[in-house]
Amino acid sequence: MILNAMTAQLWRLLLVACLMWPGVARANDWDALEQPGAFALMRHEQAPGIGDPADFTLGDCTTQRNLDASGRAQAQQIGAAFRDRGIGFDAVLTSQWCRCRDTAMLLDLGPVSEAPVFNSFFRDAAARLSQTEAARAELAARSGRILVVTHQVNITALTGQNTRSGEMLVVRADPDTDGFEVLGSILIAP
């Protein structure tokens, strides 16, 4: 009897811990994409490391952190999961960083175009405010179903939330705060 009570208590604690872990409670909120004005912000797939090397050059993938084999495979798997549900995007906007562009292309979910307002400002914190405002303006000017493939720092600046590699936050403009309301998240486990 005591063992059963302890087991039940452990399961309850595990459930609470999972619900508190960012993304877990809302993971795979496919219906959120159907809400009026909703669009998706995705963190690029797995690219080992943090930041970029000192010799980083925009447009030269040999100087950047890039997707590893797992990240490339996962991007394709995420795209397949969306296509299996009949979900595509009218536009896929991407940072100019190779890991974001490659993620966007491998998803194969709609026409991809580079949008410098979604470039990382990890090394240039002074650009955070102006670039985030420019990103908000870019999104406000768009219509249709939009997917943005960008970086953790950009997503956090826009939403106040963290994401894992390959995770999407489904958001829409919040007129009361001039920011974005997070409607849910989608995370396809490898």
Helix content: 25-40%
The profile of the biggest β sheet is: 6 strands, mixed
Gap between N and C termini = 39 Å
Number of domains: 1
Keywords: Signal
Pfam family, one: His_Phos_1
Protein name: Phosphoglycerate mutase
Signal peptide: 1-27
Structure, explained:
The relative contact order is 0.21. Helices cover 35% and strands 17% of the residues. The protein has a single domain, classed as Phosphoglycerate mutase-like (Rossmann fold), CATH 3.40.50.1240. It has helices spanning 2-20, 69-84, 98-107, 128-140, 152-159, and strands at 39-43, 91-94, 112-114, 146-150, 168-174, 179-186. The longest helix has 19 residues, at 2-20. The protein has a six-stranded mixed beta sheet, sandwiched between helices. It has five helices and six strands. InterPro entries: His_Pase_superF_clade-1 (IPR013078), His_PPase_superfam (IPR029033). Keywords: Signal. This is Phosphoglycerate mutase.
What layout of secondary structure does this protein have?
Elements: H1 2-20, E1 39-43, H2 69-84, E2 91-94, H3 98-107, E3 112-114, H4 128-140, E4 146-150, H5 152-159, E5 168-174, E6 179-186
Parallel strand pairs: 1-4, 2-3, 2-4
Antiparallel strand pairs: 1-5, 5-6
Helix pairs in contact: 2-3
Pfam families: His_Phos_1 (PF00300)
Organism: Puniceibacterium antarcticum
Keywords: Signal
